[in-house]
């Protein structure tokens, strides 16, 4: 099992940046895949970015070049650096982990004003 706690969300103007953090309750090297999903009001949850244990990353097309996923093994934390934010990036961002089954954090709100 793993518990995931997100932080770093908030309100930012369009064109700005935010860095989200996801702290895991166990050694993240033992986790197959970690990443971020988001859900906007009235929409389905969608992939933002994931990173595998061996470092392979995958981004949604609309995030490529703007968002970067990374991890810090010493802190058992995965990050999402978000640059050039747009109003359509407004959503609740969820941390995700695959460890035999899917695990989710509680979510952190990101609001981008125009």
Tally of strands: 11
Helix content estimate = under 10%
The major β-sheet equals: 7 strands, mixed
User: Which radius of gyration do the C-alpha atoms yield?
Assistant: 13 Å
Number of DSSP helices?
Answer: 0
* Shape call: globular
> What's the order of the H and E elements?
EEEEEEEEEEE
| Percentage of residues in DSSP E strands | over 45%
Mean pLDDT: 96
Spans of 5+ residues with little confidence (pLDDT < 50)? none
Structural class, from secondary structure content? mainly beta
The N- and C-terminal alpha carbons lie at a distance of 40 Å
Description of the structure:
- It is a single chain.
- By secondary structure, the chain is an all-beta fold.
- It is 0% helix and 54% strand.
- It has no helices and eleven strands.
- It has strands at residues 4-7, 10-13, 18-24, 33-39, 46-52, 57-59, 67-72, 77-82, 91-98, 102-104, 108-113.
- Strands 2, 4, 5, 6, 9, 10 and 11 form a seven-stranded mixed β-sheet that branches. The protein has a four-stranded antiparallel β-sheet with strand order 1-3-8-7, with no helix packed on it.
- The radius of gyration is 13 Å and the shape is globular.
- The protein starts with a strand and ends with a strand.
């Amino acid at each position: 099992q793993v518990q995931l706690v997100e932080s770093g969300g908030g309100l930012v103007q369009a064109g700005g940046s935010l860095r989200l953090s996801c702290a895991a309750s166990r050694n993240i090297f033992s986790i197959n895949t970690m990443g971020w999903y988001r859900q906007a009001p009235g929409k389905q949850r969608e992939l933002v970015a994931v990173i595998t244990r061996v470092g392979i990353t995958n981004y949604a097309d609309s995030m490529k070049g703007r968002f970067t996923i990374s991890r810090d093994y010493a802190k058992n934390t995965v990050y999402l650096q978000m640059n050039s934010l747009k109003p359509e990036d407004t959503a609740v961002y969820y941390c995700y982990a695959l460890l035999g089954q899917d695990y989710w954090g509680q979510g952190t709100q990101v609001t981008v004003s125009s």
